[in-house]
Amino acid sequence: MIRKASYPLLKLHCAGCAHRSEGIAAKVEGVEKASANFAAGLLYVEYDPERFRAEDLKAAIDHAGYELIIDSEDPFSEQEKQNRKNYATLRKKVLFTWILALPLLVLGMAHGWHFAGKDLILMVLSLAILLIGGRDFIRNAWILATQRSANMDTLVAVSTLVSFIFSLFTLCFPQFWEARNIEAHVYFEASGMIIAFVLLGKLMEGRAKNGTSKALQDLMHLQPATALRINADGTEKEVGVKELQTGDRVRILPGEAVPVDGVVLAGSSYVDESMLTGEPLAVNKTVGNKVAAGTINQKGSLEVEITGVGQSTVLAGIVRMVREAQGSKAPAQRIADKVAGIFVPTILILSVVTFAVWLMAGGWSAFPRALVCMLSVLVIACPCALGLATPTALMVGMGRAAQNHILIKDAAALEEICHIDRLVLDKTGTLTQGKPTVEEAVMTNPQDASSMKELAVLRAAERKSEHPLAGAVVEWIDETLRRCTAPVDEIPAEEIEDFESLPGKGIRFRYADKTYWAGGVNMVKEMMTDTAPSWLETCTEQESILIAFGQGTELFCRLALSDALKPCAAQVVKQLQQDRIEVHMLTGDHEKNAAAVAAKTGITHYKSNMFPQGKQDYITALQAEGHKVAMVGDGINDSQALAAADVSMALKRGTDIAMNVASVVLIGNEKNDLEAIPKAVKLSKKTRRIIQENLFWAFIYNVVGIVLASGLFYPVFGWMLNPMIASAAMAFSSVSVVSNSLRLKWVRIA
């Protein structure tokens, strides 16, 4: 039987590293499938437990220069600890590098400013940057070289080392070039600035990835560390959750998080299950009902028999599925890293071929020209333009997105948004406002002092109620009484007597020797049996929730409560459909409410009664059909689907878990946050086009420059590119790429 596992993977330097680690893992005995995610730092494997040993996998990965965590008690906490440590080290390294790089840049570019010792100062600054900032690039390039592989680290290491060694030779032996009528010129600033810019990019990339592990840690923290276990003799003792076993009994007090999965043996209460269903209304739990770890018990006390603890709980399953979804996603390979795998060895071969051809054509007398041509090829093939092509466009695009209330946490998401053809929306809190409000109020009696006094009575009673709709009723009464011209006296809650909660019906109580009631359809039918109002049948057919208030058979008022749509919801759905994006809706709510919201927004594809696993399965089913899928949600129950989607979007007012898992956070206010989605699609298309233009021009500069630098046109036209001009051409290509990226600042996306 094939099993699955996710392991933290450290020391990844680029998407190419993730791709390489996949290939290494796939060759380990027993591994059926391997997939690495660079952004999440995860290696996901499917394996045969009879043949697979985690130690063999770790040995293979570690030998390749990476690090797999398998033997820690909590490997993902260890990964987070290591990531924080590495990020802090990188930040210090970037700061130190740029302190040295700025004077290096000023002195290196001031060609008209000459003084004794200038080149020596440049050499010292460049050497310090190489030893501190460039050490990892050089070490990684060496490891890759011993394994006959290459990536952007190789290109950085080779170009910086060649530039430095060439410049050092020129500094020590300038007469070597002068004797051959070649200007002795140094390129120390090139080697130093390449490292400074690449390190800065890595720091920004690391910062963008920090949320993923934290999201899963926060999710696990929803489950309390201790529980109140009921012993066989009836005594109660607080113990660690790890000590509990299936079949044990625990007591869950009001306000506590449920520590385990279980079945209620005694007691009744309302439990907030929004982390599972996303629905704002707490669920009434009585004997025989199931409860899940991480949900919140409200006011009642429950005695629960454990059915699942630790890794067997629903909460742990969500964590596990999020990790698997992150690890099993096909990693978005950076275009520059893909090209580097071919481009780097090609440039190295071309430089050697250039050197050899010149020697064969002109003999040893052509050695200086051969060396200059070889160095020119390496210098002009510097990765600056290729390295800047994607990140500069993404940086500007991300800044532009922030101006439009779109927080892009993962740069790869900005590239991917333009490819989506299916958008899946959560209902509650995403399309709707996420909380019940009084949509309609009908007062049976005229709104005089008497009827206002009755509302004050209802307010006092609802304040004693545990029902999740009570707050919405109290809020509406507060607002109604505030608008009342005559002041209405506050009725203390303690004056409400014989308060009784009737599950499935409502509440009954006494005030001033009179018995009142408030509740839904069932309560109205019971209290007004002979005089059931005609509107009652209509109320049962609507998606709104009815609350009526009365005394005996006399009705004072009726309220219709619902979770209202956001004002922009229908317009956003229409706009996305016009952009040829098919919109789907998933919700944990029942069919009637789901159908009503779908009809109002123009959504034809929707599913109701969806739990976290079902939402993830829905996403993966769309992907299996060949679609690029984006998911928009706001709750913990959406986290699995968010992790599985090609692009994940969360709302700022959603849970921290959803926001940390998502690669895009919509940070507008609750009325217009959805309007950012079509803006993100348009911005992504513009950014993608800029990236393609940047890469095109970067390649053109490199191809034309390499041809000139190799001296191919020298025998015919006398054209030869010396390293100084090659360096200038390289710098110009970088400037053009950055300038083109800056055009995104003025692109209209509204």
Reconstruct the topology from this structure:
Elements: E1 3-10, H1 15-26, E2 31-37, E3 42-47, H2 54-63, E4 67-68, H3 75-109, H4 118-132, H5 135-146, H6 152-172, H7 174-178, H8 188-209, H9 211-220, E5 226-230, E6 236-240, E7 249-252, E8 261-266, E9 269-272, H10 274-277, E10 283-285, E11 290-291, E12 296-297, E13 302-308, H11 314-328, H12 335-362, H13 367-380, H14 384-403, E14 406-408, H15 411-416, E15 422-426, H16 427-431, E16 437-443, H17 449-462, H18 470-482, E17 497-502, E18 506-511, E19 514-519, H19 521-527, H20 535-541, E20 545-551, E21 554-562, H21 569-578, E22 582-586, H22 591-601, E23 605-607, H23 612-624, E24 629-633, H24 639-644, E25 647-651, H25 656-661, E26 664-666, H26 676-709, H27 714-717, H28 723-741
Parallel strand pairs: 15-22, 15-24, 22-23, 24-25, 25-26
Antiparallel strand pairs: 1-3, 1-4, 2-3, 5-6, 5-7, 7-13, 8-11, 8-13, 9-10, 9-12, 14-26, 16-21, 17-18, 18-19, 19-20, 20-21
